[in-house]
Amino acid sequence: MAGPLSKRIEDTQRRIVDLRDQLNKHIETINDENPDDAATAITEELTSKIDSLEKSLEALKRAEAQIMRGADHGSNLPVLRSDGGDRGDRGDRGDRGDRGDRGSEQFMTVRDSRPFAMAMGPKPKPSDFIWKAIATDLKHFGEGRKRPFLEVLKENYGDGNDMGEMVRRVASLYVTKAASIPADTTTSGWASNLIQTIIGDFIQSLIPHSVYPVLSAKGGSFTYGRNGVISLPARNTATTVGGAFIAQGAAIPVKQGAFTSITLTPKKMGVITTLTREITEHSTPSIEAIVRQAMLEDTGIALDTILLDATAADTTRPAGLRNGVSTQTPTSGGGGAAPAGLTAFVVDLKLLVAALISGTKGNLRAPVWIMNPGDVLISSLLQTSVGETAFRDEIATGTLLGYPIIQSVNGIGDTFYFLDAADFITATGDTPNFSVSDQAVLHMEDTSPTGITTGGATPAFASPVRSLWQTDSIAIRMIMDINWAMRRTGVIAYMTGQTWN
């Protein structure tokens, strides 16, 4: 019998059911007082076929279990406890599920890892599990948590051939924490009500929407782990420790380089958004797509707006890339007829490249351009005096002067960057933290939120305030530790107000 192992199991089960139906109907036609040989032969034949198929079914199930167990042990996705620990034994956990007991930590796994329905396509990424778990949790909360999470997960994403990996990963990555409802729900301790945590590669999912992950991939990327601070060595390029030719017997020169360290402490980025329960009761895959798109796009914008500004670092945020960097003066006269625009563009390229070469003493490792997509299009259309587009073919390949172009509309505006991405170092928490609650009290303020109450004898109360429980709403919270810095000075050049665009 051809086809995937799960399809063979389903077909075998179907055949067993059909044969049992035939056997039942046949038994009803037999004269028990005087059975004939032909009827007895049919009974024995049907019984033998059922016995044979049942043995085959058991063998197929054992084979499937072995395959899934091997895949599970080979995975690099750990099962995390609520305290952040790593539970290495994943092969022989029972299917404990979420039985509605909110007072203890539970791990939910699928022991019988039957593939479930999902369209054929590329192997799911860990970030896919995040969004499906969030969508399922919204549905779970929308129903008042009356059913186990795993049951809602299966209902939302089917029970067919190709969902086994998805359900197994979501269930194994999903952690249900103990939830306590404080007596006073108006204090800033409402966060203890946020009870669901989902783990995944959220940063890499931002690539289509943000400059940050592309730069991070080309530079140095670190995680804090259990460390509160990451300290990295750096040097000042104004000094040199290069060797020199010397005569025999002459003294060797002693050169002292200026070395220092860059310290990255966690900066917390967070956001909360709310939905009504009625929204979650509609198509859960649609909710998944809406939440995924909104969080990725808006997080990308938030990151790049800070990353590409000129503000200095403080206790709350990292420094923008333009902080302490002088802008290059754009070439004038690029707005006339061709080739005026192309000429101004070429001169601007020379200025930016020369500035970076001068700042790094020619030691460029991974230079990249950061441009607005509109500027990329315009630069590819700039013409010579005879109507030729000098840069169109190269820009179509994603490079300019042989260096990669990073395109983004986030926080760029009319600014044109050239920098050495190898010197961009980042530090993040091990994973972003996503939480869902239907019982928190929130200050519904998107710019300057405060605690629900502040002050002493005459406390001030935040306004407006919403109780999720009272308004039958659900909130999603994301928290992510993140920080960045440039390892060397002189590795960024930029200009704004170009005349060729």
Entry keywords:
501 residues, alpha+beta, hypothetical protein PF0899 fold, five-stranded mixed sheet
Account of the 3D structure:
This protein has 501 residues and is an alpha+beta fold. Among the domains are: 5-74; 79-176, no CATH class; 340-426 and 488-496, hypothetical protein PF0899 fold. Helix content is 35%, strand content 19%. Strands 6, 9, 14, 15 and 20 form a 5-stranded mixed sheet that branches. It starts with a helix and ends in a 5-residue tail after the last strand. The model is unreliable at 72-121 and 172-200 (pLDDT under 50).
> How helix-rich are the residues, as a percent range?
25-40%
Tally of alpha and pi helices? 12
Let me know the average pLDDT.
74
Uncertain runs are: 72-121, 172-200
The number of E-state strands comes to 21
Largest sheet data: 5 strands, mixed
Q: Tell me the fraction of residues in β-strands, as a range.
A: 15-25%
Q: Taking Cα atoms only, what radius of gyration do you get, to the nearest Å? A: 31 Å
Structural class: alpha+beta
Shape: elongated
Q: Gap between N and C termini, in Å? A: 64 Å
Short structural description:
Helix content is 35%, strand content 19%.
What topology emerges from the helices and strands here?
Blueprint: H1 5-29, H2 37-74, E1 79-80, E2 86-87, E3 106-107, H3 126-142, H4 149-157, H5 164-173, E4 175-176, E5 196-197, H6 202-205, H7 212-218, E6 220-223, E7 230-235, E8 259-264, E9 267-276, H8 277-280, H9 284-307, H10 340-360, E10 367-371, H11 373-381, H12 392-396, E11 399-400, E12 403-407, E13 415-420, E14 424-428, E15 433-437, E16 441-443, E17 453-454, E18 460-461, E19 465-467, E20 473-486, E21 492-496
Parallel strand pairs: 6-14, 10-12
Antiparallel strand pairs: 1-2, 3-4, 4-5, 7-8, 9-20, 10-13, 11-12, 13-21, 14-20, 15-20, 16-19, 17-18
Helix pairs in contact: 1-2, 3-4, 3-5, 3-9
